[in-house]
Fold these 3 entries.
Entry 1:
Amino acid sequence: MRVAFAGTPAFAATALAAIAAAGWPVTLVLTQPDRPAGRGLQPRPSPVKVLAMQHGWPVAQPRGLRLDGRWAEDAAAARSALEAARPDVLVVAAYGLILPRWVLQWPRLGCLNIHASLLPRWRGAAPIQRAIEAGDTQTGITLMLMDEGLDTGDIVAMEALPIGPQESAGSLQGRLADLGARLVVQALRMAESAPLPRRPQPAEGVTYAHKIDKAEAALDWHAPAAVLARRVRAFDPVPGAMTTLDGTVLKVWAARAESAPPQGAPGEVLAADDAGIRVQTGDGVLVLTEVQRAGGRRLTVRDFLRGAALTPGARLGTAA
């Protein structure tokens, strides 16, 4: 069975590595164009492209796939590459481009998507972050045969995974990547000898995981502490929750919520010691335990306070 793959981040590279380890020939890899990254903003290949280059697989990086769209020339080149690759199945994981009908109809076994939620909950671009932000206690992986809708295809396989009470998006993504890799290998083995099982998604319980906007990273101290603590975990590592201290950006990488009667205005520092920076919120106290100044590195509050004087009454951010 000949496999083509479409994906971009590390989450997708985990599945691609598992497919290769299982022995299927990878005849084409589609991934996003190289993006500027790092302090020098030099073009950097995606984790999927890095893996493909290591194995010597053909790579295509179209900016779009619509044959009649802005990037029609890129799309036509990608179509030629797909025709030359002759895949039986296209596995898709966090690719970042919408697949038009001509792609969906090309592989004889269809396009098999690895989606990081229990569909139909959290269709869309940011299912891992939105699940944590919403306070879900479990998520999982759904394998689906793609159609032209937004994550609306028939379910092939599904497995749940608990979300830890202090789990960040980064750690959860790693566990989901491993689960997705295992499930897709199982499905491909099944597809070699029989049609994949499929069932429609339930009509009830649909939610949408909208793409994370950088503006969401700013902590609104009028919000409840429990909501802010979930947002800190959901936005670790990208884009990173933030506030301001003395007019400069302060990233917040770890925090916990505590119930307490109001002792100050939202955003006011109530105490700052080795145990954490206690900040008043709209409901309860948010205790910051790991932070980062602009241009610095992530520090425990204990280490941060060695180089920063922070006294009760100081204000963080601008309460919305």
Note: The longest strand covers residues 248-258.
Entry 2:
Amino acid sequence: MPFIAFLFAVFLFIYVELSLLVWVGSHLGILMLILLLIGSSLLGITLIRVRGWYSLTRVKQQLTQGQLSTDALFGSLRWLVAGILFVIPGFVTDILACVLLSPLGRYLLNLFIGSRLIAFRQKLFKTHRTFYSSQGNPSREGEIFEAEFEKEADENKRLK
């Protein structure tokens, strides 16, 4: 059932995108429509290139200062997705890209990703596990085991 809903959403998106392209093309003319589509694609390519270099230098700067650069990475991911949406021909994708770059889009994305990230952290760091305790064995804190290891060469070099 979720697959059918996904297919319906994809077909609805394509229908709305093509209908909007035909409507704009009939009102502005085909040449203006082509220029708008080329302009939005160039804008998307420019966004991806410029923001890529900016985010690379910002992440490098934060890492040299010893800071965790998750905000810079999420911001760069948001700009990258918006650039890809601008490159895809159509006006619905351009509107989605503009919403993604707006402060409202940033807030909604941080809210959505933040809730998922908090749930992931709670599942991941629920207990302080070690390798020994994660194998289903009870942890034995305070016990120290000493052992010796000696490497011996096998004369026959065969699996036994």
Note: DSSP finds six helices and no strands in the chain.
Entry 3:
Amino acid sequence: MKVFGITGWKNTGKTGLVERLVSEIVARGFTVSTVKHAHHSFDVDHEGRDSYRHREAGAREVLLSSGNRWALMHELRGAPEVPLADLLTKLTPVDLVLVEGFKAEGHSKIECHRAATGKDILAKTDASIVALASDTQVDLAQPVFDLNDTAAIADFVLEQVGLG
């Protein structure tokens, strides 16, 4: 599987870009999966639901299944966070995995940047960031794309991973 990342500070458009890239790349005939890093404790089920009750009771894993989908939740219970490489082994093979977040991992990434956040550009000091998608003009050694030019960004990503 080919892996490419979308990274950046909070509120820079990462999720919107991933969503648009998935649609664009799938429309081109490729299979795509995503991995999203969350910085905080999160729940995919809610208090009172059977799966929540199973997890709260101490289950290490809870697998939900229906005629439409299945989902596996794994509780770390104090164990260290799982590295991206290990998480990728859990996925069914596809043409491309788009990874949102995981700033510290070494895979190639495009950084989302919005001037309004006031945050510095990570690409200036992170060699794994091979391009920037921004809502403003930026002078960088790496390619810079308009944050909303999904087709051009998709072309770039596919070329970078050898699917172009």
Note: Strands lie at 2-7, 32-36, 61-65, 70-74, 96-100, 109-113, 129-134, 144-146.
